[in-house]
Amino acid sequence: MKEVVLGLLGLGNIGGGVWDLIRTFGDEVETRTGIRLRVKKALVLDKRIHGGHEVPEEVLTTERADILEDPEIQIVCEFLGGEQPAASMMQRALENGKSVVTANKMALSLHFDELRAMAARTGAGLYYEASVGGAIPIINAIQSPLIANHIEQIMGIVNGTTNYILTRMAAEGAEYETILKDAQRLGLAEPNPAADVEGMDAAYKLSILGSLAFHSRIRMEDIYREGITRVTAEDISFGREMGYVLKLLAIGKDNGDSIEARVHPAFLPADHPLARVDGSLNAVYLYGHAFKDMMLEGRGAGDAPTASAIVGDIIQAAQNAVHPMPWLREDALPVADNWQSKYFIRMKAKDAPGVLAEVTGLLAGEGISVSAMMQKGAAPGGKATLIVITHIAPEKAVRRVVQALNPEICQVENVIRVEG
Length: 420
Description:
This protein has 14 helices and 17 strands.
């Protein structure tokens, strides 16, 4: 039997979930692996408040040095959330030769280079399976079983809050604000939901996943980001009539000489595997030159699923004599700002001769062809809803068309990309 001594930075939802899993399932883990996990210290703001978990008084501390500077503690597990002080505390732990396990996608994404460099310098391990997709073993899959592949594409539903909102909007025909308030009441969305609904959470995760999959550092500022706040029940309904399902996607593509990295709502064909991922579930769809298509799906958040991934990382860190370090290119590939996709364009157009010709003429002038079109009727002289779905076209060309349309006769109400 090998004992591994742990320090927990934080004892909130995730830290408490890890404590509970080790306390209730640690004996079984020891039987299976020969490793006994012992939590020596857990950092809290106030010893009197620690989430109701059965934690002995002697384990609790309010001093970070009790964990970061204790030579007996071998692995530091970070559950503070946010960028700071989490990043600097992980940096200090690695500097002291302690392996770090984290689920903190924000701190990891923003400080990946320096954390990775410190781990390489001291030989400590940096493990972060739970930072993307909760219990879904996507990071391990990319770094180990799929390492003999050129991964060309990633598409992920990596934020459970937005997937829950879009699923309910589709099922009930309700508007975004109505479902958001209900999700907040149920505790599925934060009181300030901006990180989720504006795509920040998904972008942090894409920064991590894309960097690993394409072996080229993708920074947050490189990622195009658009949230779901402008999506309407009308968009979802019209898309469904045309055979599509709307999701907030984190998309990464390796184009050989450049990379695409973007987070935005996108329509998928109804028979695409990701289109069937509903509620708060997460899923990541990959395409590689050898394995072809693959999708991993599961619980992307929650105390227990996240704790499961974290304890898995702890065991790996304890078992590895040499800690794995992902290879990244020294000169990162540029991130493209003019990618190509299909486009769903919803407009209010005058029900008059020549309007359709103007729309199709502007599209043709940019070399954009129309894949499908639908019009919802209007009274004579009034305005009709016109939906155009293009064939694959450059992003900037579509933007030029939208800007060139005369709003007096044809007003664009939303543009949503179409993938798959």
